[in-house]
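Supplementary notes for students who missed Thursday's class. We covered one full example, reproduced here. Read the sequence, then the structure, then the short commentary at the end.
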Amino acid sequence: LLLNGCASTPQPPTSDLQAAEQAIASAERARVADYASVELSEARDKLSADRSAVREEKMVQAQRLAQQARADAELASARAEVSKARVVNEQMQKGTDTLKQEMQRKTGDQ
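Structure (token representation):
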């Protein structure tokens, strides 16, 4: 019994690649690089490596890199949101402290 030795070449991970590209583009539009440049840079690097893997027909590696690029871009977005929330929280705390001081000053004047 002979088995056919010709295996079909796996298809490029088009949907994973598109998802990674969209996640990176979304992060760039949200100015994530201001808060999480390392993670966004890693996502871009993995996307570039993904494209190279596709050209070299290393589809399993390409799929893994595309998924990692998307995850890195999403991580960058999440870290940026946390950083932005911290800034807002600090500003609110300063405002609250100022109001408390003002109230104490006014009650002390009477």
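Commentary. The longest helix spans residues 59-109. The mean pLDDT is 89. If anything here is unclear, bring it to office hours.
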